Task: inverse folding
């Protein structure tokens, strides 16, 4: 499916508190309840979710997805939808489907492409199939990096985030299931520390796994307190994750 611009989803394939092994929406699809709470469509990782705890995307794989300096590629013309890496890396087949490729060294620098699929690679090259054709031709001087979709395989935030904060599940969702996780509006969230209404909260480095806390410098901002927060309890936070 080629990248297209569209409005919010208005009909959900499943209830906000339901989960299923059948994917009903594109990962990242945004939907809102009538009262203004916002949700993103996500796939659960290797452990079932816990309601009210903070979740993040899959941890960065700096060796096989985001190598410093990027991965070398074979030349590819404008309009091509396949990019073949010539660097050594290890990837399972389809691991990057729904994720992104960025060109980090010119020619083609600064462009982001949605990934349709990838072939398996074990110490060898892989073919990346793109949803959209190349806008700028790649040469053997070009370098690329990859990332999975930030909502593909969400895991509990481990105390110090190792990926983008994804949202807060409102229920227990099964391993590998597709479900809606909350990213905006009033939400019960595990809290550490003491908060005050209207104050900014976020996920801290070296904090409690799956919790928010009063925001300080370098915090991943998650929202604002709606009332006084008490440590180890589930406080009301107005989420502003996205």
Result:
């Amino acid at each position: 499916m080629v990248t297209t611009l569209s409005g919010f989803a208005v009909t959900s394939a499943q209830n906000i508190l339901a989960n299923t092994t059948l994917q009903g929406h594109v990962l990242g699809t945004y939907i809102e309840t009538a009262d203004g709470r916002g949700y993103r469509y996500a796939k659960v990782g290797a452990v079932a979710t816990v309601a009210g705890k903070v979740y993040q995307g899959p941890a960065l794989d700096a060796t096989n997805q985001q190598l410093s300096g990027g991965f070398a590629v074979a030349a590819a013309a404008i309009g091509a939808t396949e990019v073949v890496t010539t660097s050594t890396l290890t990837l399972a087949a389809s691991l990057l489907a729904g994720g992104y490729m960025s060109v980090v060294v010119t020619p083609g620098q600064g462009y982001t492409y949605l990934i349709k699929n990838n072939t398996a690679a074990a110490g060898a090259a892989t073919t990346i199939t793109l949803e959209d054709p190349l806008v700028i031709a790649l040469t053997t001087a070009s370098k690329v990096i990859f990332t999975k979709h930030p909502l593909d395989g969400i895991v509990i935030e481990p105390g110090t985030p190792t990926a983008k904060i994804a949202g807060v599940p409102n229920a227990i969702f099964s391993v590998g299931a597709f479900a809606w996780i909350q990213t905006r509006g009033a939400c019960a969230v595990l809290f550490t520390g003491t908060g005050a209404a209207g104050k900014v909260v976020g996920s801290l480095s070296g904090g409690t796994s799956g919790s928010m806390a009063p925001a300080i410098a370098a915090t991943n901002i998650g929202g604002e307190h709606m009332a006084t927060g008490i440590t180890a309890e589930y406080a009301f936070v107005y989420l502003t994750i996205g």
